[in-house]
Amino acid sequence: MTIDFRPSWMDDDLELYRGSVRRFVETEMQPDDEAARKRGHVGKEIWRRAGELGLLCTDIPGRYGGADGDFRHEAVLYEEMARRSLTGMCPSIHSIVAHYFLNHGTEAQKHAFLPRMARGEIVGALAMTEPGAGSDLQALRTRAERRGDHYVLNGAKTFITNGFLAGVVLVAAKTDSAAGAGGTSILIVETDDCPGFRVGRLLDKIGLKAQDTCELFFDDVRVPADRVLGGVAGQGFYQMMSDLPYERLIIGVMAAAAMEGAYEAALEYVRYREAFGRPLVEFQNTRFKLAEIATTIKATRCFIDRCVEDLVAGRLDTASASMAKLWGSEQQGRVVDECLQLFGGYGFMNETMVGRMYGDARIQRIYGGTSEIMKEVIARAM
């Protein structure tokens, strides 16, 4: 009997869609993954190809160029990538940016950017984190000063996913230093032919080697006043807070799928790998470890699936999303570590998928809000 980790929210139409996603992942993403890990990014062509196939912005309404789907369609792509440790292309950040436009942008902003994002013509990035701010979004030093019909933007951002390839960046900046959280705005910066905008170095990470994560610099960048997200300054902090549950559930979904991929790889390995004249799976310790791992994955899957259903129904609350992120990312780290142990020395090799998963898993407890921040959010809801 095989343990079934199939999501509870799947249906026949989604199964057909998953087949299309799987073919794209296996035939167009996997072959280039090794090269992408060496150069530090996947390039823009894979984004355009994903857009051509209708795999981007799937939960964005069709009137804005999306696929008229829902979060489940997004989750299918995240899962198929995470199961194979394909972390170079980051459609999750791309979709988060799209949802900033959808939820907070003006009609003109939605029509200007969402269709191009859905087609993969431009890649979206979110520039919040600064060298000295980390998770404290109220401690921003990036400034945008209003001068006539423009803002002049100055500052630096770091750890920016998709930053190297980005065609549009949503930049969190202070537009009124005296107004506290109410003085924060999100500015829309198009990177092509943008004087004063500069991409810094591709950062050397312990995981996510194929994912472009970099520094961004803004030196007197002129941003038209109508490129403030939503058209009204001072709404940035509210906009950032309201979209966090979506982001945190994405991390939970990827965690569950990565655990499943690691488990399946470990199960296959111990069935043929021998020690002392017999397969590893015949040792009680191996079987017990696999039983513990499968139980953790099953429990995680049930909770994450419930959160997915709640998000689709419009009832996912901030505390539950934070729990999904906290539980999923913490268990991912533990499960992948246990799976690596079953591989022995081979698990420590970057050529082994589980070894790559080990390095990739560590950031899950940090980005999107650290585990410590998640606990604080959950505690405040008690």
Would you mind describing this structure in some detail?
By secondary structure, the chain is α+β, with helices and mostly antiparallel strands. The protein folds into three domains: 12-122, Acyl-CoA dehydrogenase/oxidase, N-terminal domain (Butyryl-Coa Dehydrogenase, subunit A, domain 1); 124-235, Butyryl-CoA Dehydrogenase, subunit A, domain 2, CATH 2.40.110; 243-380, Up-down Bundle (Butyryl-CoA Dehydrogenase, subunit A, domain 3), CATH 1.20.140. The protein is built from twelve helices and nine strands. The protein has helices at residues 12-29, 33-39, 45-52, 71-82, 91-104, 107-118, 236-242, 244-272, 284-313, 318-343, 353-361, 371-380; strands at residues 123-127, 143-147, 150-161, 166-174, 184-190, 197-202, 213-224, 274-275, 278-279. The protein has a four-stranded antiparallel beta sheet with strand order 2-3-7-6, with no helix packed on it. Helix 4 packs parallel to helix 8 and helix 10 (318-343) packs antiparallel against helix 11 (353-361).
Notable features of this structure?
Butyryl-Coa Dehydrogenase, subunit A, domain 1; globular; 16% strand; Butyryl-CoA Dehydrogenase, subunit A, domain 2; 382 residues
What share of residues is helical?
A: 40-55%
CATH class of the largest domain: Mainly Alpha
What average pLDDT do the residues reach?
Answer: 95
Indicate the CATH architecture of the largest domain: Up-down Bundle
Query: Element order, helices and strands?
Result: HHHHHHEEEEEEEHHEEHHHH
Helical segment count:
12
Computed over alpha carbons, the radius of gyration is: 21 Å
CATH topology group of the largest domain: Butyryl-CoA Dehydrogenase, subunit A, domain 3
Distance between the ends: 41 Å
Name the assembly state.
single chain
Strand line-up across the major sheet: 2-3-7-6
What does the overall shape look like? globular
Number of strands: 9
Strand content: 15-25%
Largest sheet: 4 strands, antiparallel
Alpha-beta content class? alpha+beta
Count of spatially separate domains: 3
CATH superfamily of the largest domain: Butyryl-CoA Dehydrogenase, subunit A, domain 3
Low-confidence stretches: none
